[in-house]
Amino acid sequence: MEAAFYLFLLGAITGFTEAAGILPDGPLNAPVGGSVMFTTSLTEADGPFLGVTWSFNTTFFIISYQSGSSLIPPAYQDRITFFPSTASLELKYLTLDDGGEYSVTVFPDRGGRIKLDIYVPIFSVTVTPQSSDLVEFSSFSLTCSSSGSSLSFIWMNSSSEVTSSDRVQITDGGSTLTVVDVTRYDEQSYRCRVFNPVSEGISDPVNILVSYGPENTKMSASPSQEFYEEGSDISLSCSADSRPSAQFTWFVNGTKLPDSGPELTLRNIQFSQRGDYSCQAFNSRTLTNETSPSVSISVLQKISGVSIKASTEQFIEGSSVTLTCEASGSSPSRTWKKDGSDLNLSEDVTLSEDNTVLTFKAVKKENSGEYVCLVSNPVSSSEAKFTIVVNYGPANVQIEGKDLINENDQIKLICSAESTPSATFTWRLNGSEITGSSAEFLKEKAQSSDSGTYTCEAKNIITEKQSTAEHELHVQPGEKMSSGTDEGK
């Protein structure tokens, strides 16, 4: 029996050619240490089978089966499982040496061949960067390594697969990724995916950092104003697009300040600190710097000490007079008003170019009133008031009273004059001074000797001018006239 079995086996290995393939199209892939199932297309209905032989690389048999008995070489003991009903075979504990061609012969006229490829499984996928901290427009390389056999590589960034381009090179069978002219937009995480027909693995992410800048350096002031009052607090901020974060220094009018950092606080700022402020950003990795456009800080002193000074203490009609508006503070602007309304200028009333001096070429009584000088700058304002009283006269002296009265009647004459200050009065009768210095001359009982020419002399003690008026009065003797008699004024 055993001799016949070996003759059957020898014939199967050396000379049989299957009539129809009963194995699938190959190859089959399996990992080292794993198992593989060689499954035929036969079923129990195709049996019974006179004999089945499995061989490896045409010369080494794995199993010979006939009439319920199996012959298995020592090398395959405990490594195979044979399925007589379908002539299928499972091979376990695979090694790289198990890779090759497997054939099956099923007597009398069936058989097949299939290739088995054995692969070492993938594990320990790692990515080694040439550098992970780069300067923009330099280049970087990543190398992917892994255990396993017949390796294939795919590179992935944070969002998609990385493919070759003008700036991206994939070399060394796909295991090396090189990016040239790196920009900040290449700053992301990269992974390497390694695979073969029986396994795959992926690396931990490698983060690529790209140093760039500084650029877009700019500064701002808070509060943002065209002008600042002396004593204000101002905060200046500087920013720049930069990796790593930029270092900042400060300048005023091109002179470096001792301050550093992205914030500069000017507390209780003084007029002397006005000027054009700028900041400079510096990147310690790229070793470049950039200066911001300057911001002008205009500091103004508050308006104070506003006063109006006159060129004379007394304003006499016809004289030339000036009012000077004095003030301290920065960039004062002056506006004049009279009696609450805008000041009307003329040939006789003029202002200096800076509105500081108000000149009256020949002051008139109409120029009397309250004058206000409003001094302002963009951060403050103040005003001063001054009242002008124009001294003039006396003028238009007049005497009011009767020109005909009877003896024992009352004499009442009133003298008036236009004058500032009010005039003083002197009375005369027929050229001789008489008692009385007020505007009213009064005598209770007239006598005939009171007839004559009455003169009122008005005098202004400031202008030192005087003017007179005359009045004729007739005192008639006797009783009072009847109502029909002309009594005069």
Protein described:
By secondary structure, this protein is an all-beta fold. It folds into five domains: 2-119, Immunoglobulins (Immunoglobulin-like), CATH 2.60.40; 123-207, Immunoglobulin-like (Sandwich); 216-298, Immunoglobulins (Immunoglobulin-like), CATH 2.60.40.10; 304-388, Immunoglobulin-like; 393-476, Sandwich (Immunoglobulin-like), CATH 2.60.40.10. It is built from one helix and 45 strands. The strands form eleven sheets. Strands 1-9-8-3-4-5 form a six-stranded mixed beta sheet, covered by helices on one side. Strands 22, 23, 25, 26 and 27 form a five-stranded antiparallel beta sheet that branches. It has a five-stranded mixed beta sheet with strand order 39-45-44-41-42, with no helix packed on it. Strand 6 and strand 7 form a beta hairpin. The longest helix is centred in the first third of the chain and has 13 residues, at 2-14. The termini are far apart.
